[in-house]
Amino acid sequence: MTAKLLVRDVWKAYRTNEGTVSVLEGIDLTIATREFIAIVGPSGCGKSTLFNLLAGFEPPDAGEVLVDGQPIGGPGRQGILITQRGSVFPWMTVRRNLEFGAQHMPTTERDGLIQHYLELCGLIGFEDAYPHQLSGGMLQRVEVARAFMAKPDILYMDEPFGALDALTRLQMRTELLRILNRDSHTCLLITHDVEEALHMADRVVVMSPRPARIKRVLEIPVAHPRAMSHPALLQLKEQILQELGLSVSGAEYDTTSMPRADLVHRRPLRPRNGRALTYMSPAALSPEAAAASGAERFDVVVVGGGPGGASAATILAERGLKVLVLERQHFPRFHTGESLLPALWELWDRLDVTAEIEAAGFVPKQGVTFGMTRSGDEVALLTSEYPEYFPRTYTYHVERSRFDQILLDNARQKGAEVREGWSVQDIIFEVDRARGVLAGPNDGELRHILADVVVDATGRDCLISRRLGWRRPDPALNKVAHFTYFSGAWRRSAEEFFPDQDSIAGAAVTDVHTVDGGWLCYIPLANDVVSVCVVLDAKAAGQIRGGPQERFDHAVASCPRVQEWLRGARPLMPMQTVSNIAYLNDRFVGHGFVLVGDAAMFIDPIFSSGVTLAIRGGIFAADCILDAFQRHDFSEASLKPYEERIRVPMERIFRIIHNWYELLDREDGSNMLLQAQRTPWLRERLIVLLSGGYEKMDLESFMLAASHSAA
Amino acid sequence: MRFLRRLIPVFVVGILIAVWWVAASPSRILPTPGKVIVGMLELASKGVLAQHVVASLFRVTMGYGLALALAIPLGSAMGWFPAAFRAFNPVIQLLRPISPIAWIPIAILWFGVSDASPTFLIFLSSFFPVVVATTSGVHLVERQYIRAARNFEVGGFRLFRQVIFPSALPQIITGMRVGLGVAWLVVVAAEMVAINSGLGYLIIDSRNAGTRYDLVVAGMVIIGVIGYLLDLAMRRLEALDEVRWRYAYDR
Predict the structure, then answer these.
(1) What is the CATH code for B35-247?
(2) pTM for the whole thing?
């Protein structure tokens, strides 16, 4: 078999306002002379981009396209592209259009050819008609006839019959096959019609959603003319539909599954934005070579010692794995005061750290109050109203510096090796599989640390996902947070909300108040400290003149109640600022690595979901990695169950917060909350949500209620 | 039904003439349609009418032809080459809003009282609509046509002649129609000032030499009729098969 067209590891990405969008990732195809290939895939997956590259209209970013072994320099007669939009010139008659396709030929030869294709394409009698006088089907025939006039080696047809009605399409298919049978051409067809592909092609290529890869290549071993009722075709159809996630009987659409290893070559993951990934050859990674070069060797390397990383390390080390945690800073590191959620009790029990946390002297928290500044309404939501959901109906307000220290110490105690003040320079990849990290003490010498699994818990640094271009920011949720600690601020006691002595001594509630341009979170901590955090829409914040302090003051001034509480209070440190743009990564796992916590997803802290999701993610990831060690299989598929498990709560909270802001913008957020005052079942769901029980809640009915209350 | 629809404009014109007739009858200065027709016949019989019409049409032909000869190549270049657009567009946008009438003194200064003055003014007035329409027509050539041409390895001047120009032609013709309308508008104004022939001259002369208002109005009617006929002729251009595809959607 001689390769007419050879596509070798082709990559393409486009720069847009939102960043770089990867369209094609490592396309490999070999097509023989006279072969007919159909390409099917979800719409917008990059099929048309692929054709643009093949026909020479655009160069690939990487990889090559060879026709007869020669690279293509640009568009030319060797490969004619036919698109659904059509490009028959409306100012020329049919005959002139056909002439246009073969201007390089001597007149006599050309006239003969025109006659030939007029006949073949059923255009006799319409030679002198203008395109606007023809039907859609006729026009498409002119398009095809003109393409043949150029005597192309390869015909690229991008949904050529997409604009035609069903009957005409069927007719065109048969005619095209008849023409192709007469004149032998190599032919590639993009279609979204699986039957069309099965009817015409020798092989069908199934593409994945964007960024497009080849999911499968299927041979159609049925002779022409084909009847769609042929059992082999029916079976192939079902198989293709399943690949596309469209099958009625098939499994749910899996957007991230990799192609079967035996169908594609492995290829290195390409970094975006020019950032380097370190690659090592399998030889250099062998135990002997590694030992000789002085590389360290662990079962698992966890990058980042925050709650997510510490939790994963705890579970893994406890089960006897050799775990290394690398943390850039020295603990205790400074962090804002945080309002935790009751859902954490179950997780702390898993980590065996409950006693330490109870002994730490954190301020108990029994609920949340939402203050609507504009209307003056206030809604208090207490976990104890629905005690059946959580082991305990309270939680804590914590200083994150202290809290993170407890979790990391716990990991250390369970057997993980923790190195503080160590930076990770890069992830080491063997082709597409993470094999360790390139790391060293801050400002010290770098060394290779090899591991079977790398856990990226680098928080918003997003070590891996940034490099692979998996990070998908949500510009609609672009926020900026300003926070500081006060002493001498008024402290609101939870007793206020408990008429019958159910309150815990010294307990508080988290106060959330709407302010001009966003909201404010008021968190009483131990030792007379109150943490106040203002989260503003980045655009609104930009309109306030002055720096962080002025923005903070402006926000507080717009909420008289909090202004009163802070009267006479003394700030304990300069204003801190964090930019908070929400993002949800495309994928959370790859071959030999997982992303945990903020490294996988970040959304602004209105429901204090970050720590809960990070710890939960760390534990889920550890569970999955333990299974992977049992099987000794660290492929993406093996680590996938982690992603499937954590994606549910992550996507839920992402959706809810997205919606929340839409409501907040419309009506001060008050509608949904005030309705919760009157509607017990909505109140119940809100409390479960605010307590961190993301899976315990019926999301659909909640969203429905939210949209109703907004209307 | 079709017959009726065609009759409606005739009917409207008829009513207007009737109203004019009734309104003008008591006036000693304003002529009735009847008097205007008599005046027209008088001019025609002396051979003056044809002379004036030909003089005006000649000037329009010269000025308008010159405008097309310059505006279409320049507009094509501006539509195709961004550098040409950047270079010429500011000048064109700066000069475009200046009424041709404002140029009359300058025209007389440069060209004196001759055929050149109104020709220049007509050139000015029709140049801009054509250049703007050509620029945008060429600029907006649909990408898929150019891609198809590249696919068939057609480039250079052939690409322009076979693809870009015909694709822009419908818009160019629309610009030409606007340009011709303005040209006809301006010729009359120009002739009122400077010349001793042409329809504009006829109007001013009839008023000055003996207040012949019947001839003034006769001149006006003839200008209107010729303008209408010119527009009809341009519309015929839009009906050509080579450009019909563009307009077919709107009508």
Answers:
(1) 1.10.3720.10
(2) 0.52
